[in-house]
Each structure stands twice: as structure tokens, then as C-alpha cells.
Amino acid sequence: MQSEVPITAEGLAEVARELDHLVNFKRPDIISKIKAAREHGDLSENFEYHAARNDQSFLETRIKELENIVKNHVLIERAENSDAVGILSTVTVSEEGGPEETYRIVGSAEADPAGGRISSESPIGRALMGHKAGEEVEVLTPNGGSYQLRIVAFH
Question: Per-residue pLDDT tens for 60-73?
């Protein structure tokens, strides 16, 4: 049984766009590359054939991931007038001696740490959930360590 995938309506629309592009444009393109490479004869030393098959493998894996998101999605919305950090909150935090950083807490399907979107299931996301501005939270790292963050503000 597949688990539910929390995602916003915007995130689901983006997943649907990517899935459509991969299925209707990228997949046929890779299939034609494989067909053309096969026409060159001996497949054992045919670089184009092996590269296209490798691309096909990555593509099909991504298509399955996206189909899983579409099939098992649960739309999430931000709670109105919430007095604590929750999913879809935008949170500004600071670590002692460091600059302030701002993150939006989203479901794992939409996480993009470089873009400022962190998963509610990530160490930072888990630590922030349910806390308020001014509170200090402990972030547990995957290697067993931890560090403190102060919630400067959220909305």
C-alpha cells in the first residue's frame, strides 16, 4: 500500500505538467533514439544505444515517481490564524552567530532546500512544527548530532 503524499494544489499542477511532458514528449524521443541506435547494428558496443537505454531507465523511474504522487496525493492547505508553525508556514530562523534564513515548510514531494522549501519530514521541518516565534528548537541531525535554532518569525 502506498502512503499518502501531502502536496499543495500548485505543487500537484507542477507534477502533472512534468508528467505530461515526460510521457508525451521525452518518452517518444528516447524511444526513437533507441530505435535509431538499433539500426546501427551490433548493440554490444553501440554507445548511443546504451546511453539511450540508460536515459530511458531514469525517465521511467521518474514517471513512476510522478504517477505515485498523482495517485496518492492529499491536498494540503495552510491553517488560517494558526498560532504555531505548521505545514505551509514560512518560517524565519537563526542559529546562534549565523544569519537568518527563511524556509517554507511543504510536503516532501515539493521540497527544494536550495529554493527555500523544506519538507515537514526533514530534520529542520520536524523540529519547527508546532512551535512559536521566539522559541528555541533542537534540530536532530541524521548523524546523531543536534543544534539549536531560534524561530524569529513565521506566517
Answer: 999 999 999 999 99
DSSP H or E stretch at residue 56: helix 47-72
Q: Could you tell me how many residues make up the chain?
A: 155
Residue 16 Cα distances to 6, 24, 43, 114, 123, angstroms? 15, 12, 35, 22, 28
Domains, in order of start, for the chain: 5-75 (1.10.287.180), 90-154 (3.10.50.30)
Determine contact, residues 106/118, Cβ cutoff 8 Å: yes
Distances (CA, A) of 106 to 46, 52, 87, 112, 133: 44, 34, 6, 9, 18
All three cell numbers of 56, joined, read 530511458
pLDDT at residue 44 is higher than 80: no
